[in-house]
Amino acid sequence: MILEQNARLNTSAMEDLNVPSPGSPPPRVAKYRWLASVLTDAIPSQYKPGDQIPSERELAEQFGVSRMTARHAITYLAETGQIDRVAGLGSFVSSPALEMPLQLSSFTKDMEQRAMSAGARTLSQGVVSADDEIAARLDVPWGSPVTHFERLRSANGVPIAIENVHLPADLASGLVEIDVSERSLYEILRSQFGIVFSAGRQVISARTASAEDAELLGIRAGAPVLHNVRTSHWQGRTAEYTRSVYRGDRYQFVMDF
């Protein structure tokens, strides 16, 4: 049996806390998002900050999903700041985080505001099929065509960030054929497709650089980085999903209040 006392979940415990039994994922909802939602609802009543949550194996067995699905759910909780993952130890409930509303602007505009010259080197560009995560973030069916850009962003010639941008392919037909090196993607969308994002959400968390990211950014593996997940909206639909990794020693987010 999975008990609260040793930081585990069970269905009966959730029923005792007046949380409905999770049942099965609704149609067209990615299983990992469904599981993440179940855990998000259960965590506040089951755990305190610092408590350990179940492992991938335990979640997979408890909820009848694959370990890959459980892993994606845990990754989603970590990306949204609900848990902290500690290598070799497991996943733990995070302390409440402050969410700071940041201006919805492009990297190029951010650099202009700092009187710096923005640069962009395209690492990859093309149309990909939406996997579970991308489909959930963009609210499109699994396998839908998605325009993807991966770019290394720089300021005054110094590598600052790695951007992975995803947009529904039907949003801006022909965008994938445009050279976006050394250009603002937001400006291209505005000037050539009439798309100006009206709202968005950013989740920023502290991470350590992977070996691959470190090589691109010119820092050591394991160095502090800022992980930025952004979704933006246009005309009532999710139009952008971007994951960015920023150098922690050369970039900071500022909020005026």
Briefly, what is this?
By secondary structure, this protein is an alpha+beta fold. It has eight helices and eight strands.
Would you kindly provide a written description of the structure presented here, covering whatever features stand out?
- This protein has 257 residues and is an alpha+beta fold.
- It has two domains: 90 residues, Winged helix-like DNA-binding domain superfamily/Winged helix DNA-binding domain (Arc Repressor Mutant, subunit A, Orthogonal Bundle), CATH 1.10.10.10; 141 residues, Chorismate lyase-like (Chorismate lyase), CATH 3.40.1410.10.
- It has eight helices and eight strands, in the order ααααββαβαββαβαββ.
- The strands form two sheets. It has a six-stranded antiparallel sheet with strand order 3-4-5-8-7-6. Strands 1-2 form a two-stranded antiparallel sheet.
- Helix 2 packs across helix 4 and helix 3 packs across helix 4.
- The N terminus is likely disordered.
Secondary structure layout plus pairing:
Layout: H1 11-16, H2 31-46, H3 56-63, H4 67-79, E1 83-86, E2 90-93, H5 107-113, E3 118-129, H6 132-138, E4 145-155, E5 158-168, H7 185-193, E6 199-208, H8 211-217, E7 224-234, E8 237-247
Antiparallel strand pairs: 1-2, 3-4, 4-5, 5-8, 6-7, 7-8
Helix pairs in contact: 2-4, 3-4
Task: Please name the defining characteristics of this protein.
257 residues, Arc Repressor Mutant, subunit A, Chorismate lyase, two-stranded antiparallel ribbon, 29% strand
